[in-house]
């Protein structure tokens, strides 16, 4: 059951990501990204991270992607022009990506014993557990992050403010 | 084998809830036309069937038989997908709403489709996905009124979702859970006195929720996305026949969901307002159905309030709407969180 769901949504995730690259219209790419984000939420849920799954849908598929589509709609961005790709991509990009893929698979496969494993659907992290970790053990990093975000918001307001 | 039974019972439950829900949507439209009619000193629909009770059927047949126009300049895939997204999202959130007490038949919950630990977050998440239906419909219609309407709607939804989410934090803190059944159970012991809106001291949160929810569902006095005088019909200007009907159904389905959530979070869900004062009457069937009756009664009250507000208040101006959401509702919601947490900490010791 869990495995079936994993393959359905994992496949949806990959198809969405490919579609994101292949579509020529920006709004179709944005919608594919929403599919990717939402399928990722289901994968989180399969691993037992229910709060993370809900946050993924609300924050990423909801709020952030709405802003993306909003900007695309406002700018009324047209179709993207097809080129044959830059020479740099052929010389450095593709071999680089292949080397990275090989390196990562080698590291993960050779250290299988040390990495530990998680079975789908075998455990559940409740919202209570998560908040206990966030607000007790990791309180300082959590608060520092929130101050960082506050600074970012203030910076955005200062930049966007009109001079009188 | 038990998996099969689970699947079959779940499908039956989904079918039953969907039929009741869609019927409720149709009759909410009739209720609105009747009540707004009486507020404006006219009768409303009264010709089709006794008291006009068959009017929703006639409306449905009319919408089915209308020609489905597809304007030439639209971006077709999204133009067709938009009403489907809107309706699907509005129907999805009813699946986590519990209608009655936790009564099980062969291990299957009778009065709720899915009992989730994160029920409340699921409703918020589905609402935030529902924005796409409106946003894409306006953009794909290739019409300036549609685009302006959908831009307004999306901006309004994003702005008021913050206040809406923050107003629920106090309720969640009191229950210590995001599961809707837990939130109702903590309001059960002393009837009306334990409800979050009274005994839970969440009346400020309740009014924030109510106002933000009216804005979320694009209803008067926040119905700027479809302000007739400026935007003809807003984001669904170019839609006809069943595609228009899907937007219409989505709007009323959202109204019902918002009323259900308000009932669950602030008015004690399916629990009786009199607590244990009323003697337990009838057999087990009556005892199982009585909570459903209380739930429906409360939801009906909220739907009536929706219509009453629509018949009473004039529409906001756009800058007033944004100012109200960001400069008034949001700070008050944050203040409510602080006071609620202080009160809970004080009570705990």
What is the global morphology of chain B?
A: globular
Q: Give helix and strand order of chain B, one letter per element, not per position.
A: HHHEEHHHHHHHH
Mean pLDDT of chain B: 84
Q: Poorly predicted ranges of chain B (pLDDT <50, ≥5 residues)?
A: none
Structural class given helices, strands, pairing of chain B? Answer: mainly alpha
How many domains of chain A? The number is: 2
Q: Using CB atoms under 8 Å apart, which protein chain pair has the greatest interface? A: A-B, 24 and 27 residues
Percent in helix of chain A: over 70%
User: What's the N-to-C terminus distance of chain B?
Assistant: 50 Å
Q: Which structural class do the helices and strands of chain A define?
A: mainly alpha
The whole-angstrom Rg of chain B is: 21 Å
Give the CATH architecture of the largest domain in chain A: Up-down Bundle
CATH superfamily caption of the largest domain in chain A: NADH-ubiquinone/plastoquinone oxidoreductase chain 6, subunit NuoJ
Count of alpha/pi helices of chain A: 7
Query: What is the string of helix and strand elements of chain A?
Result: HHHHHHH
Main-sheet strand order of chain B equals: 1-2
What separation lies between the terminal Cα atoms of chain A?
Answer: 62 Å
Oligomer: heterodimer
Shape of chain A: globular
């Amino acid at each position: 059951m869990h495995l079936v769901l994993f393959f359905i949504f994992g496949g949806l995730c990959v198809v969405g990501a490919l579609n994101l690259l292949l579509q020529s219209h920006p709004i179709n790419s944005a919608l594919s990204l929403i599919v990717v984000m939402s399928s990722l939420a289901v994968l989180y849920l399969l691993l037992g991270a229910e709060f993370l799954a809900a946050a993924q849908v609300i924050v990423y598929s909801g709020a952030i992607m709405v802003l993306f589509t909003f900007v695309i709609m406002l700018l009324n961005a047209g179709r993207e022009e097809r080129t044959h790709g830059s020479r740099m991509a052929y010389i450095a990009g593709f071999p680089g990506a292949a080397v990275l893929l090989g390196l990562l698979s080698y590291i993960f496969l050779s250290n299988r014993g040390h990495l530990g494993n998680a079975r789908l659907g075998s455990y559940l992290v409740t919202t209570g557990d998560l908040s206990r970790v966030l607000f007790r053990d990791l309180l300082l990093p959590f608060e520092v992050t929130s101050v960082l975000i506050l600074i970012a918001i203030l910076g955005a307001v200062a930049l966007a403010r009109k001079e009188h | 084998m038990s998996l099969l039974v689970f699947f079959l019972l779940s499908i039956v439950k989904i079918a039953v809830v969907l039929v009741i829900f869609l019927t409720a949507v149709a009759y909410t439209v009739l209720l609105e036309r009747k009540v707004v009619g009486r507020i404006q000193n006219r009768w409303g629909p009264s010709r089709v069937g006794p008291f006009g009770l068959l009017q929703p059927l006639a409306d449905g047949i009319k919408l089915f038989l209308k020609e489905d126009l597809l304007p030439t300049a639209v971006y077709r895939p999204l133009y067709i997908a938009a009403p489907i997204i809107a309706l699907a999202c509005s129907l999805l959130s009813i699946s986590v709403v519990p209608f009655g007490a936790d009564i099980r038949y062969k291990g299957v919950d009778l009065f709720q489709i899915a009992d989730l630990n994160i029920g409340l977050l699921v409703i918020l998440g589905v609402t935030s996905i529902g924005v796409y239906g409106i946003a894409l419909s306006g953009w794909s219609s290739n019409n300036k009124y549609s685009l302006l309407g959908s831009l307004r709607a999306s901006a309004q939804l994003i702005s008021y979702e913050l206040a809406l989410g923050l107003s629920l934090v106090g309720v969640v803190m009191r229950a210590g859970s995001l599961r809707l059944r837990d939130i109702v159970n903590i309001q059960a012991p002393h009837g009306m006195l334990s409800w979050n809106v009274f005994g839970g001291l969440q009346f400020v949160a309740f009014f924030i929720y109510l106002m933000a929810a009216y804005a979320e569902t694009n209803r008067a006095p926040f119905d700027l996305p479809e302000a007739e005088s400026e935007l003809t019909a807003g984001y669904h200007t170019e839609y006809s026949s069943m595609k228009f009907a899907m937007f219409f159904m989505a709007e009323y389905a959202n109204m019902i969901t918002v009323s259900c959530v308000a009932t669950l979070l602030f008015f004690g869900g399916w629990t009786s307002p009199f607590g244990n004062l009323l003697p337990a009457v009838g057999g087990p069937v009556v005892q199982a159905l009585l909570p459903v009756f209380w739930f429906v009664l409360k939801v009906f009250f909220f739907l009536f309030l929706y219509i009453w507000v629509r018949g009473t208040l004039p529409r906001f101006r756009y800058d007033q709407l944004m100012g109200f959401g960001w400069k008034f509702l949001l700070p008050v919601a944050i203040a409510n969180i602080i006071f609620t947490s202080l009160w809970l900490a004080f009570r705990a010791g």
